[in-house]
Amino acid sequence: MKTKSILFIHGMFMTSLCWENWVKYFEAKGFKVSAPNWPGRGEPVKALRKKHPDSNLGGLTLTKIVEHYAEFIGNHHENPIIIGHSMGALVTQILLNRGLGAAGIALDSAPPSGVFTTRWSFIKANLPMINPFISQNTPHLMSFKQFQYAFVNTLPFQEQEKAYARYVVPESRRVPRESLGHAGQIDFKKAHVPLLLTAGSLDNIIPASLNKTNHQKYNTSGSITDFMEFPGRTHFLIGQSGWEELADYCHVWLQKQNI
User: What does each C-alpha distance from 107 to 27, 55, 162 come to in angstroms?
Assistant: First the structure.
């Protein structure tokens, strides 16, 4: 493998802290790892919660997030492997679509514009963010009950509590709403660097079937686009017990790519 830099991109309701185990894992494999926060996420989790509702957060958009990471890549010498989770995985897809990145891994990706499902778990878990009757200027702090359903639905209660306390922060409603329009579009026919999309079989907020549809959209690209569904995994597959299985799979997949 030629490329030894990895850029991790977190998703909604999280900071880069969610990658703490993955950073250590890939550093131990000899990679140079970066995990910068989304704009406005530079403070500790407790401090970000204390600021809720933060009007500055209410103005954060998907476009600003994508530009933030595009600028980060542009300021570094080596074109990195990009690994994103959830909305961060959609950002990964968008960056690859722009010709950035040496390879990409999209873990339980939020769907690009036009990729949709009517599955109830998807609608229920996302409704607090996309409900048109709630102002997009008002940030949302996911309740523990909402987090249980959307992220950690099958995990032991103590593991759910620990994850919520350690990682969850308020989020801008503008980010997912903008993903439904032009900002979230992907040219699926465009050639791209190797891309792996994954799904958790027990994911409520981004059902595995939705990730499969996302993957199938790339059929005419002519580029390497792989898919793997992990049985028994929730949306929080990057942090739930046994995350090493997923990290191992990603590492082996990267070793197989000629990058």
Answer: 19, 29, 22
